[in-house]
Amino acid sequence: MLLVKTEVLPEVFSKVVEAKRILNCKKAKSATEAAKMCGISRSAFYKYRDSVFAYKAVANESIVNLSAVLEDKAGVLSLFISVLHEMKANILTINQGMPSGGVAQVTVSYRSKVRDGDISKVVERLSKIDGVITLEQVLGGV
After folding, report:
1. Helix, strand or coil for residue 46?
2. Across the strands, what pairs with 48?
3. Residues 6+ apart with CB under 8 A from 59
4. Per-residue pLDDT tens digits for 36-57
5. DSSP state of 52
6. Which CATH number does the domain 61-138 belong to among 3.30.420.140, 3.30.9.10, 3.30.70.260, 3.30.200.20?
7. Neighbour tally for 48: CB within 10 Å
8. pLDDT of residue 63
9. Residue 142 confidence class, pLDDT cut points 50, 70, 90
């Protein structure tokens, strides 16, 4: 792996990254269409797509996994999700088990900017919600 300024690379690399972004945002229906929109050939796109990545997308974000036990009462999960939204978390998955004994197990994965203390601030804020019984960060974040 190398970190190289785009100014010194052939333009095709930047165009491949842009084509991948277009595909991910569903602004193109196919790789061929995305490549054409960026001014590169389909073969150039396929040649480099698995080797060229936007630095900020890879290096500045992290996936965080949380596990919580919530009271089975109206609004607790909704408030939990609202707080994540307020704290700029991009929620990737939410899994809630069937409530039993007045509680439900919930796991949430979210993408967050990597900054010291951000995860602990999120956990602290979520822990203060009335109805959150336990909350912990689960290992396995990227």
Report:
1. helix
2. none
3. 114
4. 999 999 999 999 998 898 876 5
5. -
6. 3.30.70.260
7. 18
8. 83
9. very low
CB 17 within 8 A of CB 23: no
Task: Kindly list the domain boundaries of the chain, sorted by start residue.
Answer: 9-58, 61-138
d(CA 97, CA 132): 15
Higher-scoring residue by pLDDT: 10, 138? 10
The amino acid sitting at 111 is R
Asked whether the whole model's pTM tops 0.85, one would answer no
DSSP 82-142: HHHHHTT-EEEEEEEPPPBTTEEEEEEEEEEE--TTHHHHHHHHHHTSTTEEEEEEES---
